C-alpha cells in the first residue's frame, strides 16, 4: 500500500505540466467558441487523441498510480482548461468504467477500444442510467431488458435521459431492469453495439453550462443485443439475482447495484473536476484584483476583496485534499467508512459553485459578461452539485454511512 502523500513525484509533475500545457494551449483558447456552438468539439477530442490524452491507456495508467493522485491531477488540469470540452474528452470514461467494473476480460477487450476509436477516427461512448422518473431514485428505473432464450438475445425497451454523449456514441452502456421484483438489485448493464437498430437519440438538451458536452435522451425500442452484451455474463447475473432473492426473503442487507458501483468509483474524480473549475476562476479573479484599480489603488488592497480571495484559495486547497484522500483510499482498497468519496465530491462541487460566483463579484461588470471566462465557469460549476449524485444525495450517503444505515 502506498503512503498518503501531498507531494507529486517527478513523473507526476511531468504529466501534470504536459496536461496543463494542453489545457492552456488547446482547450482554453477553444472554450468560448464551443460553449457558444453547443456542440461536441470533435477537433479538440482528436487533438487530445493525437497526443495520447484521449485513450483508455492514459486513464488506466493514471488510475493505477498507487498514490491515487494520477486521476485527480489529470481531471483538475483538463477541467481547469474548460469544463465542457474536458467533459467531452473524459465523458467516454464513465461508460468505460461501467465496463471495467462489471464486464468480463473479453468484454473489456472488445468494447473499450470501440468506445475511443483512434486518432484518425475518434469515437465517444455513453453511460445511460438516468431516466425521466429515475434520477436520484435509481430504483425507480423502468427500462426493461428481457431475455429471449431461443435466440440468446436481450431485448431492451425504455427511455434514458441526461446521457452524456447519448445518441452520438459509438457504444452505449445501458442499465436496465431484469427483475422488477428486486428493485435496484434487479438491474444489469448492457452494451449496445454501434448501429444497433432501435436505439435513437431523443431530445438534445440546451443547457445552462458545460455546453460543449452533448447531453441527450436515448430511446430504446425493441433493441436486440446478443447475450454476450450482458456485462459480466448470464451465469454471474443469475447467481447475483439468486442471492438477492434469498436476501430479500430473509429481509437481509441490500446488494449494491451495478449503476451505484459505477457512481461510487467516479465520485472523487468529479470532485477533482470541480477543483479544476474553481482554481481557474480563482486565478482569473486574483489576477484581476491585482491589476484593476479603483479609488487610486488595486482592488486587492481592499480587505473586502482580499479576504474573499483568501477564502476562495483556502476552500480550493481543502477540497483538493479531500479529493486526494478519497482517491488514495480508493486505489489502496481502504474502506470508505465515513463515505469519504461522497465527502470529497460534496465539498469540491459546492466550493466550485461558490468560488466561481465570488470570481464574478470580484470582476464586477466584466465578470458578468462573456468577454471574461468566469461567467462561463460559473455556469459550468453548477453541474458538479447535480450529476453523479446531487449534493443532497451525497449528504444522505454520508449521513447514512455515519449512522451505519443501509444506502438506498
Ligand atoms: C449535464 C448532465 C449530464 C449528465 N450525464 C449523465 C450520464 O452520462 N449518465 C446518466 O445516467 N446520468 C447523467 N446525468 C443525470 C444526473 O446524474 C441526474 O440529473 C442526477 O442524478 C439527479 O437526478 P434528477 O435530475 O432526476 O433530479 P431528482 O432526483 O429529481 O432531484 C431533484 C432535486 O431533489 C433532490 N432530492 C431527490 N431525492 C432526495 C432525497 N432523498 N433527499 C433530499 N433531496 C432529494 C435532489 O437533490 C435535487 O435537488 C446527467 C445530468 C446532467 C444535468
TrEMBL record:
Which molecular function GO terms apply here? acyl-CoA dehydrogenase activity; flavin adenine dinucleotide binding
Residues of the Acyl-CoA oxidase/dehydrogenase middle domain? 126-223
Give the top-rank taxon of the lineage listed in the UniProt record for this protein: Bacteria
Q: Which cofactor does it need?
A: FAD
Q: Which family does the similarity line name?
A: Belongs to the acyl-CoA dehydrogenase family.
User: Per the database record, which ranges form the Acyl-CoA dehydrogenase/oxidase N-terminal domain?
Assistant: 10-115
Q: What is this protein called?
A: Acyl-CoA dehydrogenase
**InterPro entries from the UniProt entry:** Acyl-CoA_DH_CS (IPR006089), Acyl-CoA_Oxase/DH_mid-dom (IPR006091), Acyl-CoA_Oxase/DH_mid-dom_sf (IPR046373), AcylCo_DH-like_C (IPR036250), AcylCo_DH/oxidase_C (IPR009075), AcylCoA_DH/ox_N (IPR013786), AcylCoA_DH/ox_N_sf (IPR037069), AcylCoA_DH/oxidase_NM_dom_sf (IPR009100)
Q: What organism does this protein naturally occur in?
A: Streptomyces montanus
Q: Which SUPFAM superfamilies match?
A: Acyl-CoA dehydrogenase C-terminal domain-like, Acyl-CoA dehydrogenase NM domain-like
Which UniProt keywords are given for this protein, alphabetically ordered?
FAD, Flavoprotein, Oxidoreductase
* All residue ranges annotated as the Acyl-CoA dehydrogenase/oxidase C-terminal domain in the record: 258-402
